[in-house]
Amino acid sequence: MRNQKGSVLIISLVFISALAVLGASFLKISITDAKNAQRQMDQQRAFFLSEAGIQRASWLIKQDSGGSLKAYTSDPYLETFQLQGNGAALNSLESENINISILYTGNDIYQVGATAQVNGVTKTLSALNERYSPGKVFDYAYFINNWGWFYASIITAYGDVRSNGRFDFKYGPTVNSEIYAGYEVGINGSIYGYGSQTEYQYPDSDGLEMPNLNDLSYYENVATSKSGSIIINGLTLVNGVLGDDGGENENLVLIGTVTDPIEINGTVVIRGDVIVSGYITGQGTIYAGRNLYVPNNVIYVDGPATTKPTYPSGSPPDDSVIKTWVTDNKDKDLVGFAATENIVLGDYTKSSNQWIFNSYLYGMGDEDVGEDGIPGTSDTGEGDGVFTAQYEDLDGDGVKDNNYTSATLQTQVALSSFANLPSGMINYADIANNSETTLPDGNKIISGVYYTNHAMTGMLEGSTNVRGSIISKDEAIGINAMLTLDYDWRMHSKYTTGQNKLIDVGLPFSKEIETLRWWEN
Fold this sequence. Notes:
This is Type 4 fimbrial biogenesis protein PilX N-terminal domain-containing protein. Helix content is 20%, strand content 32%. It contains eight helices and 27 strands. The longest helix is centred in the N-terminal third of the chain and has 62 residues, at 2-63.
């Protein structure tokens, strides 16, 4: 009996010892898990604080209108701050120090860093930020903020096309490019080219932000500080900004011939209406404070010397071929045209062309578009008769726009009041039919990158080759012959942004600060 009791006691002691060991193990594991969980939480908190530091650095760059941060090219600008600011901390994180650094690397690019520590856990983030980089809308041969439409077999696109709204195709256009749409890609009948393949169609794509030209003060500062100019036949017509001096005529006619082309150097701003026609040379962007009129050809004198990258059957061109072409032609003529209001193509005064305006343009433009900023989607707020500037003021002027009218097309003053109007030209048709800017075969070449956050409209008569891009909020362009959209790859963000940018002609920007990339140290 005693032996049995002793055995039970020994077994009990062994069992209790085992439980104790297991308990200690579980306790150790629990403590370790708790420490790991706390560490993970601290890492997340330190990450969020560092992220706030990156945002703070970006904000400082945006506020640096005088460019003082550009002085920090060797040693970075340093700052330590807390989320609580000058107030009391609402939680423990708001009192933690966040250390930021800003180093200017040139070409409006800043390397920023932020470091934060929580309970001994440190996180450091870095980013490359570019200020005033051209909007991503310039990556496309055709970009429309709301409804994109190719309704003709005589339309051919060489270059990606995109719409923030739907994109509809009808009557068999050819699209040798990728197709992006914020909503549906609608195909009624046939579509040709490799864009007809679903693998190159991207419906429900995220919307791209359009540059806003309601305020041209930034571009005027650039034009003045960098001495942008327009010269014809040795006469300087624009020196930085036209219309900024008291009594200066702000409306201008620019007609270039083979012997006396329009010479552009950098960014220029013309505060009124601009009429551009004929031959042009140089690099830069012309900003119009109102409408831009293109009554006839716009032809580069010294355009790209080599054939553009070809589009193999069933696939896009190779990236290496494109880059080689861009590098070979980066110094050739390249001009942007940007209008605060509208861009009018062809002879808008010709009575036979009025159908395009009556049928299409005058049904566009109303800003009662709802929360998504796109007409025709029947989203919340669209068509409710209430103007909510927060998301419906598409041009940022604080005033609700209604549909376009005939006044949209008209110059703000009589043609006779424009500066540099050639003698003998009395009406708009005289400019549109000028023999010195008309090709012998009657066809048209429109070179350049054309941007407006209002309407791109007009009538293109004769086969037209747009050698660049058409980018606008609304589009109502009529055609009666072949229209070819031939994208100029030199405008793609691969070559106009970043530390290795090849080209900068001063195109409109969408965001004051664009993050090129970020990483965790």
